[in-house]
Design goal:
alpha/beta; Flavoprotein-like_sf; binds ligand FNR; 5 strands; five-stranded parallel β-sheet; Rossmann fold; 6 helices; single chain; 182 residues
Length: 182
Amino acid sequence: EIKILAISGSLRQNSSNKALMNAIIGLAKENVKFTIYGGLGDLPHFNQDIDAVEEPVPVRELRTHIKEADGVLICTPEYGNGVPGVLKNALDWLVSSGELYNKPTAVISASPSPMGGDKANASLLLTLKMLNADIVESGTLIIPHITSKLNKEGSITDPELKQELLSVLQTLEHACHQGETI
Ligand code: FNR
């Protein structure tokens, strides 16, 4: 069995990125167990002073979730040409503790715009590289025009996108398996 932690960079209830995340989970085989991390909004703002003396409970939970996962899937929007603050904040808490070290990680950005959140995606990769996450080859996906590829219920209506998501999932799974045999 493979355990994957799924993180949405959007806190919005009807988020297209959350819908994508759920679509990927729906494509997974039985041996892949997904956990959706819902704590982004509960994390305190990163503060080096706090990090030096204590581990707030939501931070401990985030770190534990990542530690216990074989891989991580991030689906994120782009805000103001960058990574959503809540997501960057979470990653900042992981710099000192290092749970993402060598962790197979796939990054998906989606946007209604023709650019697909490419700047948030690139910026996220920079941070993940600094954290030495194992960014899975071809596990990075930039999805433009997301609103025309999902229906009202959040299901994927675009067959090409479905195929791309399946491919990301398979690549991530493969990377997680490799980790198991080390
Ligand atoms: C946006 N949006 C946006 N889109 C984009 O491609 N690049 C950007 O820089 C921004 N900036 C931005 C700022 C703010 C404050 C908002 C509210 C929105 C649009 C964004 O991609 C869109 O709202 C998505 O639907 C958000 O993703 P979720 O919540 O559907 O997952």
